Amino acid sequence: MIDDGFRLMPEQASTLAPSVDLLYYFLLSVSTFFTVLIAVLIVYFSIKYRRGNQQVDRSKGEDHSLWLEVLWMVVPLLISMAIFAWGASLYYSEYRPPDDAIEIRGVGKQWMWKFQHPSGQREINDLHVPLGYPVKLTLISEDVIHSFFVPAFRTKRDVVPGRYTNCWFEATRTGTFHLFCAEYCGTNHSRMIGRVIVMEPAEYERWLANSNMQESPLAAGKRLYEEFRCVTCHRPEGATGRCPPLEGLFGRDVKLVDGTTVPADETYLRESILRPAAKVVAGFEPLMPSYEGQISEEQLIYLITYIKSLAKP
Amino acid sequence: MTAALDRPTSVSPESVSLPKRHYLNSGYTVRSWLFTTDHKRIALLYLVSITAFFVLGGIAATLVRLDLMTPQADLVRSETYNKLFTAHGVIMIFFFLVPSIPAVMGNFLVPLMLGARDLAFPRLNLLSWYVYMVGGVFTLYALLAGGVDTGWTFYAPYSSTYSNTYVMATAVGIFITGFSSILTGLNFIVTIHKMRAPGQVWFRLPLFIWSIYATSIIMVLGTPVLAITLVLVGLERLLGLGIFDPRLGGDPILFQHLFWFYSHPAVYIMILPSMGVVSEIIPCFCRKRPFGYEFIGFSSFAIAAFSFLVWGHHLFVSGQSIYAGLVFSMLSYLVAIPSAVKVFNWTATLHKGSISFDTPMLYALGFVGLFTMGGLTGLFVAALAVDVHVHDTYFIVAHFHYIMVGGAVMGYLGAIHFWWPKMTGRLYPEGWARLSAILIFVGFNLTFFPQYILGYLGMPRRYHIYPPEFQVLNVMSSAGASILGVGYLFPLTYLIWSLFYGKVASANPWRAAGLEWQTPSPPPTENFARTPVVRHEAYDYPAIDNQQVEEGLR
Ligand code: HEM
Ligand SMILES: [Cu+2]
Asked: I want to staple B532 with a disulfide (CB 3.0 to 4.6 A). Which of A206, B115, B238, B390 is the partner?
């Protein structure tokens, strides 16, 4: 919870937090051990072998020892490889959202956070999430790089203009937690602060129902698809043959005219809408007009949500 | 016959007086300084200018810390705060840490340690100083005229498209200064290869030379990448090329790759020379050969080589692929090994030594302690999942200050104190000097240790205002900073005092090995009356001491 005075560890409020802290405690013990070891040796040698002390035996002061050198290369190497593997496995799961996660979209902008829930509710600088459900965030920035950071969840992800990034978490405690922007983004960087509000699932449902309901991203995407006249070329039947059909596109690999293939992920869809000429699909002419400047980040998100829905049989 | 230098003669203190003719009094005019090609005078030119930059950077830091005493923005506005931390970072990194030891101590010592008259290219050396000054003045102008608020990392697209301040002028200043680094590095490499005294084979070189050599390689190979990056930011701003701006099809993450490809190795430009200094000081005040000479020497090269392979550990949360993250994390741990090797070797050097605690030794031991703590927290930031949490928080601020301020600055101060008698022919007041070394150590820990905790608690870096629960630790940090500040003012004062009133130093006040001590203090312009011949490895302390025992008996 926000505001409970002096502490040495941040609150644990996600499934990830205890595992990150465990690794942190391990690191803390390893580094305390070596710091103390070095400090004790330095102090002990300094006292014992101080110049004034004539009593000690200084004969045979070695100036090299192969086995010692090997020992203190191999031991730190083993320890650090273990830390590497541990940290890597956590990182791997941290950035691979489970399939059934609730997907919330977020847009960062100097200097605010805008979120939208799957059923359409929007909020600014606040993010309501249900307890005990995995939540996946898909994030993009409208201007400079920001970074989505919730210390109580031990999670962070840069929010980059021009590409979608993801992170996910599952909250384990109800309450209100800090949401910071961690990547320096200009004058009011330190005021780009929000709150994550974790609620009991039932309460979350109630909150969703009571917030002023808006068009869902999917519905908005369908509407925009017609408004922007995408539908004139991209028809389900692929009638004209002038442009690739969008059905079943998301998640596939796409072959381009230059012979390379790219995965049709969200960043690819976004780029194809804004700069269609950048990656032309094999077998098609670069006929599509650019929508750069006519379409906002939020509208792009709706369109992509709609195109993704076409992929599902 | 050439002077055989394996057995230095001790000079009893009473008989000491300044040599009649030396590099300092070989000319008094401004011209004789500004057009000198003497590496020792150029080192002093650098010393004065770098100290001035350090003071400026320190003033900015003081204001930042004062402002952070309270959670609200009480002292300055956000724009000003952002310009202050940018000024602090830019000045400290590019105009203090990168040039400090190489340009001041390296310039002064490399020829002396090699038994040479000067660097290989004395005029190029003078040119490097001018290039440094031109770049510095340019940047200072930019920082003072309008100010830059991008942070020293200049991340695009903020720097290339959004920031409307003096980004271009600052970048030009840094770009120019980069050439000074490259020229200095080239000069050292050629000098170390070509100008060693007869008999001075590679394995008889002082470890300081090994570390300067490794540093020079990074300077020559890395700095051009920084220059290219800055040119690209400039082109982007002027012509809107769209290299980094996604609205024009560019990639902001590309900027980070280019930037860290220089800037990660650059942190080793800052720390390797300090490691070299410590490897000189500890053996001298232990009267012992350094433990594992070869391992200390080669670890410098291992660090230099690995440092080019780990830049991606600054991008763990940027959206680079998970697999890139895994590779960069693993490689980062490989850099940790040669650093650990050095720490263990320095500690082992104390074993069975005959240890005295003069000021340089206090700084060297302080260095080992702080560098160990900074390096060990490198294990935290290289561990992927932990870095995700601490990235861009005060934990990182603490980590790199332990390395760069705790490490590099302690090494620099140790070097200044160790070679001050050689540079100026004067001794400083030992009591004051020891007191300040202790003050700096204590003040430093009080300043930066709380920041590790702050960072793990989640306080992001570059925050002007912060939630009130972080205040206690911030106040501790600011209190420590004032002690640290006082600690830094001491040497500034007593070193200047010593120039006029300090006791006259002998040629070799520490009874140190190393060719630089085999010529008067301060050295004559041509360094050595006769080219020295090297018959022994660099640290034959047992022999020096035995010889003195024999002389005493005679
Ligand atoms: C030789 C001494 C070292 C120096 C001079 C040094 C310096 C630095 C600096 C300047 C940063 C910059 C952060 C920023 O502005 O964002 C940094 C970050 C980092 N350092 Fe070190 N470091 C050293 C040792 C290590 C070691 C031994 C490791 C790994 C075992 C390490 C791993 C890292 C990592 C992973 C980061 C990035 C963290 C982040 O941005 O979240 N460092 N270091
Ligand atoms: Cu931001």
From this structure: B115
